[in-house]
Design a protein that fits this description.
Elements lengths: L4 E6 L33 E4 L5 E4 L7 E4 L9 E6 L2 E6 L3 H5 L10 H6 L9 E8 L2 H10 L3 E6 L4 E7 L3 H9 L4 E6 L2 E2 L6 H4 L2 H6 L8 E6 L13 E5 L10 H10 L17 E6 L1 E2 L2 E3 H14 L4 E4 L11 H13 L2 E5 L21 E6 L24 E4 L3 E4 L8 E2 L7 E4 L2 H18 L5 H10 L9 H4 L6 H4 L4 E4 L3 E6 L9 E9 L5 E7 L5 E3 L3 E4 L4 E8 L7 E11 L2 E11 L3 E9 L9 E6 L5 E6 L4 E7 L1 E10 L9 E11 L3 E6 L4 E6 L5 E14 L2 E9 L6 E4 L6 E11 L11 E10 H5 L2 E4 L5 E8 L7 E10 L4 E10 L2 E8 L4 E12 L5 E7 L10 E6 L15 E4 L2 E5 L3 E2 L5 E4 L3 E8 L2 E6 L3 E4 L9 E8 L8 E8 L6 E5 L8 E2 L4 E10 L4 E2 ...
């Protein structure tokens, strides 16, 4: 097999497919109504580490537009969806991502938005950079306008904050510097008692004098409320975040499980090691835990503070490669002897191999969760470890309904029935982990000289194995500190992973490993050995004598020759009187697999070096991204059906402007096989528009199809049509092809802002037509002309427009983007193919660094204009209200989840959205209970009871849109989201957004549902004010309008409307300074 880099990921069966983005979730257990993830229809722009700017039309958009950074205009981009996450990877990063020099998450648009790293919410790209020498790396960082924020010596790395307008320069320097070993996203991990403490035997340890006295246990979490009576006077704190206090309650809960005194409950909710000292390293904020903060906290706890035990009830997805947190666990354990006790994760039993990182590190004592009867909790993550089939979790502990300290002012968990102000109950491996950390503290007290591996081996060996629980669910078993403090015999290693017996199995041999039993007592111990699984494993002896202070070896043999494929697990149980040592075992007999060789050939006929290839199962979960610089890569795949595609760099120069998309929709792996991706097989793809002065400003092309009932889609994005090629290889599958391009006048600026026209043309064609060589020349008569009028409320403003091209079934096929002047007028020409539509979006405001805009972000209604038609579309004109249109579903109830996106701004053109300069607070209530509050336009809650209830959504804004809309308030009271409505008023305003002072004017007033359609209401009242709401006057509403008399002089008109809908829903909206009179 050729040496290669093969990256495996859990994946959705889509390339360039529907993107679903979740906003950051509340940390910790959720036992009451909790924040859920809405889907707001507003553009999100994300600046990549390369400096390229990616824009998605909404949080649920299916594709993206890309503006390459200066000097990167010829770059092409591969787009794919992996595990529901949209990846946009520029061609000069393909090789670096596949060889794992660069973290794929840096190009994961969904994840970056989820983490709050989009351009609206963050102006820098947070990185972790590893290098051979840190001084040289820090110098490079500084020379390219970025800032080193932390040294992370445990992993020979630095945390870097790179301003988004400087990232292109830093990328270019680091990309070509072989001394820079790896570049990671500084992402975020998530923090994943009265009965549970006796369950693990802690009272017996207390009676024996083990209370944790003199032992420091670090808690790397959301912080600790040191004023809580259970923890007062015993907490040393260090903050690695910009947020103060424990605002979540997670860290306080965890710390009190470890070391709480139970003071606030009369001793009832006492922790495992009630006299231990807590070292609180606050590494998590409400939005999550920065990886660089976690790394800094680990170093502080292990090196600076000398903690014997470090609790990490946090984690994130594990991948086969070693990430910085896993690397730090290994390095710091070896350096200091500290024991890292880490949560297994809460991914549940739906799938195997879901252990979270950094609990996936070898040196970690990884903890799963059980309930009060020692049954494995449904939410607890399962092994084996991703990549090598190793045994994880190592041990388990109570993690269901755990009552522990409640941080002041927090809402995590369910308040305890007896002490609701001081304690809450919560579920999770986050709660199981501190039980083990507390047990380790008790053991460390009795053995001051022991290192972490000795504590780990003793706790695992003394665990209480449950026969009904699998090894990959429970590890060695549930922690038993009563036995651990008296245990004098341990096993090395504490678990035995035989790994994989590869297919085919005609040459399988037996595998042997040695268990060394160590006796620390002064008397010999005669161990009787028992296997819980005798089909797969045998022992060299059934009895072994371990001398005092000595060791004895036992050989374990794994023999799968007569067994079926799959994982085989068991335990060795060694007993001698009260002594019992449990050692988990595991081996995997690989399922049927074959070698699949992929060859990549460029347009010059030579092996290709620059490509991005993906292979996955249409109805499976796994995806592989194989790479080898030779152009030929071999990987072993399970027998079955796959689909595969590659993006081959096709430019004849160092430019990355062109790519060939080559795909094989069906690849049946029933034996060793090969696929050749030859760029010369690709047929050209091209569109053109009537105006010969136009040039392309972005091109999408690809295909979509059904493979074994699964939707599969391949696509690519590049600046123009140069070297754009596509080909189907192998078995033919009927597909639909799509091509979409955006055009502006040549030499009209980088974004086309000076072009008097724009072309947005897209077409769906049979896949066979696209494969045969596609050239579509659009004629003027088959296009629709829509004049764009961009209004401006301040000098120096600019505008950007995005046009999303979709099928009638909602599938997004492409998105174009161009700049405009503000104020300004342009004619947009649109293709008019039946079965497709366009969704327009526009940003208007002041330049905000680079190409960013601070101001209005508006979405219009989708439209499908007929050929030869013309229309006018207005953007950004006052008055500004809160109103819906039909661009999305704004308020929805699905099952137990309610979501509301309230557009804080709607303009005179019926476009809805928000203004980035506004301060917005949106709240969701059920009755008088506050369910969610966000400093943004969305709110959501899940876990809601069935049946009718009174809900209320409120939104308050402050700010100024050109001196108007300085303060607004909207209140919507309803039982069913379908009842919600808004009020739109339509005064006749001049170009200064004013009516003539001293005149009377009739102003239509309309009630609109959540699709922007007029509806009838039972009652509607309108009040107006000429003194910014200090005093109000009533107006008579008649025949859908009011007549207002404006005073002489100049000033502003404020409006307040209230209405009751046909079903009893109520709406109240107030706008201070809605428009002017002068």
């Amino acid at each position: 097999m050729t040496t290669s880099h093969t990256v495996r990921r859990r994946t959705a069966v889509l390339l360039v497919a529907a993107m679903s983005v979740a906003m950051p979730a509340t940390i910790g257990a959720q036992t009451r109504a909790a924040a859920a993830a809405p889907a707001a229809h507003s553009p999100y722009t994300v600046t990549l580490v390369t400096g390229d700017r990616v824009t998605v039309a909404s949080m649920t958009a299916a594709t993206a537009s890309v503006e390459p950074a200066a000097g990167r205009e010829d770059m092409s981009f591969a787009m794919s969806v992996v595990g529901g996450h949209l990846l946009v990877i520029p061609s000069d990063a393909h090789r670096l991502v596949q060889t794992q020099r660069v973290d794929r998450r840096l190009f994961d648009i969904s994840e970056l938005i989820k983490l709050g790293y989009d351009d609206r919410r963050r102006s820098t790209v947070p990185l972790i950079m590893e290098a051979a020498t840190l001084p040289a790396l820090k110098k490079t960082v500084s020379e390219h306008g970025a800032r080193t924020t932390r040294e992370l010596t445990a992993v020979k790395a630095v945390a870097v904050s790179a301003p988004k307008d400087k990232t292109a320069s830093l990328w270019e320097a680091a990309r070509d510097d072989r001394a820079v070993h790896r570049i990671w996203l500084d992402g975020k991990r998530q923090p994943l008692l009265d009965g549970s403490v006796p369950q693990i035997g802690a009272p017996a340890a207390w009676q024996a004098g083990y209370t944790g006295k003199g032992i420091s246990v670090a808690v790397l979490d959301t912080g600790v409320d040191a004023s809580h009576p259970d923890l007062a006077g015993r907490v040393v704190e260090r903050n690695f975040t910009a947020e103060t206090g424990d605002r979540v309650g997670h860290g306080t809960h965890v710390a009190s499980i470890i070391a709480g005194t139970g003071m606030a409950s009369g001793g009832r909710y006492r922790g495992v090691a009630p006299e231990a000292t807590v070292l609180s390293g606050k590494v998590c904020e409400m939005s999550g835990c920065s990886e660089s903060a976690i790394l800094a906290g680990m170093q502080w706890a292990a090196v600076d503070q000398g903690a014997r035990v470090i609790n990490m009830s946090l984690g994130g997805e594990d991948f086969p490669s070693v990430d910085p947190l896993e690397e730090a666990v290994t390095a710091l354990t070896a350096q200091t002897g500290a024991l890292f006790v880490i949560a297994a994760g809460n991914a549940g039993a739906a799938d195997t191999g879901t252990i979270a990182s950094p609990g996936s590190a070898d040196a970690a004592l990884t903890v799963g969760a059980v309930d009060s009867s020692d049954a494995v909790a449904g939410f607890s993550s399962r092994g084996p470890r991703t990549g090598d089939e190793a045994i994880k979790p190592d041990i388990s502990a109570p993690g269901v309904g755990i009552v522990a300290a409640r941080a002041a002012g927090t809402e995590m968990g369910e308040p305890a029935a007896d002490f609701p102000a001081s304690y809450v109950a919560a579920d999770g491996t986050s709660m199981a982990t501190p039980h083990v950390a507390g047990a380790a503290a008790l053991l460390a007290q009795g053995h001051p000289g022991w290192r972490g591996d000795q504590l780990k081996a003793t706790l695992m060996g003394a665990a209480e194995r449950t026969a009904d629980n699998a090894v990959f669910d429970q590890g060695a078993g549930r922690v038993d500190v009563r036995r651990a403090i008296t245990q004098t015999v341990t096993a090395d290693p504490p678990s035995v992973s035989f790994g994989l017996q590869p297919w085919p199995h005609d040459d399988d041999t037996t595998l042997t490993k040695t268990i060394t039993y160590r006796n620390t007592s002064s008397v010999a111990v005669a161990l009787a050995l028992h296997l819980t699984h005798t089909k797969a494993f045998t022992l060299s002896t059934s009895r072994v004598d371990v001398p005092p202070g000595g060791t004895a070896d036992v050989t374990v043999t794994a023999d799968t020759r007569h067994l079926g494929v799959g994982s085989w697990t068991g335990h060795v149980v060694a007993t001698a009187g009260e002594t019992r040592v449990v050692t988990p075992l595991a081996v995997r007999k690989e399922d049927e697999r074959y070698a699949v060789t992929l060859r990549h050939i460029g347009l010059d006929g030579k092996p290709a070096r620059d490509y991005l290839t993906q292979i996955f199962q249409p109805n499976g979960q796994d995806s592989w991204f194989p790479y080898d610089p030779s152009g030929t890569v071999t990987l072993r795949l399970p027998k079955g059906r796959y689909t595969t595609a590659t993006y081959l760099h096709t430019s004849a120069t160092q430019s990355h402007s062109g790519s060939a998309l080559l795909y094989q929709p069906i690849l049946d792996v029933t034996g060793d096989t090969s696929v050749t991706f030859d760029a010369r097989q690709g047929k050209p793809v091209r569109q053109s528009v009537p105006d010969r002065t136009a040039e392309a400003h972005g091109v999408f092309f690809g295909v979509s199809m059904q493979v074994d009932g699964a939707s599969v889609r391949y696509g690519t994005l590049q600046q123009g049509f140069d070297n754009a090629r596509i080909a189907e290889i192998g078995t033919h599958v009927q597909a639909t092809g799509y091509v979409m391009s955006t055009w502006a006048r040549r030499d009209s600026g980088d974004t086309g802002q000076d072009s008097p026209y724009a072309y947005y043309v897209g077409e769906q064609v049979p896949g066979d037509v696209l494969m045969a060589g596609y050239h579509r020349a659009f004629r003027t008569g088959e296009l629709a002309a829509v004049t764009q009028r961009i209004h401006s409320y301040a000098p120096g403003q600019i505008a950007r427009q995005w046009m999303q091209f979709s099928r009638d079934d909602g599938e997004v096929l492409g998105m174009g983007r161009l700049g405009m002047r503000a104020p300004g007028t342009r004619i947009n020409y649109y293709s008019t193919q039946a079965g497709s539509s366009w969704l327009p979006q526009t940003a208007i405001g002041m330049p905000a660094g680079g190409d960013r805009i601070a101001g209005l972000r508006l979405t219009g209604s989708p439209f499908a204009p007929p050929a030869g038609s013309s229309a006018v579309q207005e953007w950004g004109a006052a008055p500004y209200t809160t109103a819906f249109n039909d661009s999305q579903q704004w308020v929805t109830r699905s099952g137990d989840t309610l979501q509301a996106v309230i557009p804080s701004v709607s303009d005179a053109g019926a476009n809805s959205g928000y203004d980035t300069t506004q301060s917005v607070t949106t709240r969701l209530y059920r009755g008088d209970e506050l369910l969610d509050e966000q400093d943004w336009v969305y709110v959501a809650a899940s876990g809601l009871p069935a049946g009718p209830a009174s809900y209320r959504v409120t939104q308050d804004t402050t700010g100024s849109i050109g001196g108007l809309g300085t303060r607004t308030q909207s209140i919507f009271a309803f039982q069913d989201p379908a009842e919600i409505f808004t009020i739109r008023y339509e005064p006749r305003l001049d170009s200064r957004y004013a009516v003539v002072a001293g005149t009377r004017q009739r102003m239509p007033v309309k009630a609109l549902d959540t699709a922007g359609r007029p509806i009838e209401v039972r009652q509607l009242a309108l009040e107006f004010s000429f003194d910014d709401g200090t005093t109000w006057q009533s107006a008579v509403v008649a025949k859908g309008a009011v007549t207002l008399r404006y005073p002489p002089g100049s000033g502003h008109v404020s409006l307040r409307v209230s209405a009751t809908g046909a079903t009893g829903a109520e709406t109240t909206q107030t706008v201070i300074r809605a428009y002017r009179y002068q």
